[in-house]
Task: inverse folding
C-alpha cells in the first residue's frame, strides 16, 4: 500500500513541476527580452529544471504587462 501512495505523491509533484516549467517557458517567450536572452533563459529552465526555474523566477525578464 505504501508504494501506491508514494507513486501518487510523485505523480502529483511531477505534474506540478511540469506545469511550472511550461508556465515559465510561456512567460519567457512572451517577455520583451531579446531573442538571444529568451533562448538562454529557456535553455536554463530546460537543462536545470528546478534551479533554472527558481533563477528565472527571481532574476528573469519581467513581462511587459507587470
Result:
Amino acid at each position: 500500500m505504501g508504494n501506491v501512495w508514494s507513486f501518487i505523491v510523485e505523480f502529483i509533484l511531477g505534474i506540478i513541476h511540469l506545469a511550472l516549467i511550461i508556465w515559465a517557458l510561456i512567460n519567457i517567450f512572451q517577455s520583451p527580452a531579446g531573442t538571444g536572452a529568451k533562448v538562454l533563459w529557456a535553455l536554463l529552465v530546460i537543462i536545470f529544471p528546478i534551479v533554472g526555474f527558481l533563477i528565472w523566477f527571481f532574476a528573469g525578464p519581467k513581462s511587459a504587462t507587470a
